[in-house]
Amino acid sequence: MLHLFLLTFGVLADNTDISLGAIANRLLQNPGGQPYDNLTRPGAFGDPTQVQAQFRLNRLFDVDPKTNVFAMDLFLRLRWNDPRLTFPEPLHNEALRIDPSLIWTPDIYFYNEAIQSVPLDQTLKISNDGTVFWSRHYLMYLATGFDLHNFPFDSQKLPIQLVSYSNSQQTLRLNWYNDSGGAAYPDPIVNKTFSSVLWNLNSINTTLTNIIFRDGQPQFDFLTYSLFVDRDPSVYILKYILPLFFIALCSTLTYWIDPTAVPARVGFGVSLLLASITLNFVVSADLPHVNYPTKLDTYIAIIFLFVFISMIEFAVIHVLRVMGRISLSPSIENTFRIVAPIELVLYTTYIFLPGLEVNPVRIVIIILMIVTFLATASYFGYHHIQFKKRQALEKSGEITPLKA
Length: 404
What we know:
Acetylcholine Binding Protein, Chain: A; Neurotransmitter-gated ion-channel ligand-binding domain-containing protein; 2 domains; Neur_chan_lig-bd; cell membrane; Methane Monooxygenase Hydroxylase, Chain G, domain 1; 7-stranded mixed beta sheet; disordered N terminus; 404 residues; 7 helices; Neurotrans-gated_channel_TM; alpha+beta
């Protein structure tokens, strides 16, 4: 190395117009000494080679919960020191730019990469002190698990995991690269034009994890950028939630149709039931398939229940009228006219409140739903008692039975 230094320095002293390309050739050819070995890491028989990494995030797109994959446009920057690549400082403090395949580069890869990607472009620069800076631009498809219990008002953690392999001698160690220096973890580097369709970037977290297997097996260094993003639910509200709500609201209008108009009541109820089934097929085709119900799945089930109850209620009213129990019919109709829309609004508000935790607003809504149910039960109980009294009076002949 000393021979190389003196030779290069002598050339610079004699000819200040020497090109950086010539310096690069001398570094790699190493005349008079051992040729540069791009398969051997720096300090192969010494301490582990320290490699520092940094991400620059440009854009998040194609977040697909169906396949548990999301895509990132990003730069991966690596920096390490290779003493074999030192040279006298050239004119204008320039750095060498060479092909990465000509020198040793660390074996580092994306742990949660879903589809193998090739760098769109890359740059490798060598400073005179042997510091190597390697920047690669990726369009990266990464895998992660999505938590969709709160869908479509969910928040997700999207990790970008970089891992290096070290054997039992710890030949390679991975850490963060900070432009400002001194800090263990860098501030998130995010392009000012960072954007995503349907997702809003909330925060970014950085972690460094070391994993050692049993019995002194190899060690892995994990660098993780975790993006915490919130889904924009506007499109789901307009396309799915509002239509479902209006279908259920229309089902409460059946209680205002004269129960003697059997074709009108049956036709209206069946039309709403078919409309809700059709919308459910449309919604299901666009929603992620998971083995647990999401918020939207639960709401769809409740909408079916409201429509189905409207059909059951009319069947009960019709049977009561056929059996001659006409006095119970108006009370049942009046109850459902008031209670059904109130319960629909309360439940819709409850299920789509932000977050999964129990909060005062949810507690108030639960109390209102319970009070409404108890008031309805009391109302039915009162009218049932009145019906029994009237039935007894009709049998004794004190009053005239009502006609259907």
